[in-house]
Amino acid sequence: MIDRSGDYTFKLCSDDGSRLKIDDLDIIGNWGLHGMRCVEEIRYWAAGWHDLNVEHFQNEGGAMLSLQYKGLDTQDKFVNVQAYYAPAPAAKK
After folding, report:
1. N or C terminus of the chain with fewer C-beta within 10 Å?
2. Which DSSP string do the residues of 2-58 spell out, in sequence order?
């Protein structure tokens, strides 16, 4: 949820690959085999709800994934994105 329209920086960090989509737009591509690496992207976002989709894969070794953002809503300080997981639909009988 973005409370105030404006420029927001999203930072996606991972070991190995990750990518971020917001409202079905490709925002950050951090794909591939690599150690811990962070990628940032600044975009203008209107106030309101936005759909986030993060994909991640792990090959070998350490595993890590984080998504943070900063902007008008956060006094320009990075905060962790709070995740909401929708429950899977019940199986039909």
Report:
1. C
2. BSS-EEEEEEEEEES-EEEEETTEEEEEE-SS-SSEEEEEEEEE-SB---EEEEE--
Q: Which pLDDT tens digit goes with each residue over 36-68?
A: 999 999 999 999 999 999 999 888 887 888 999
Cβ-contact 19, 77 below 8 angstroms? no
Q: Indicate the SS3 state at residue 88.
A: coil
- Regarding beta strands 52-56 and 79-80, do their DSSP bridges make them parallel or antiparallel, or are they unpaired? unpaired
How many CB atoms within 10 Å of residue 91? 5
What single-letter DSSP state applies at residue 81? P
Taking the model in full, what pTM does it have?
0.82
How far apart are alpha carbons 45 and 2 in whole angstroms? 8
CA distance 62 to 5: 37
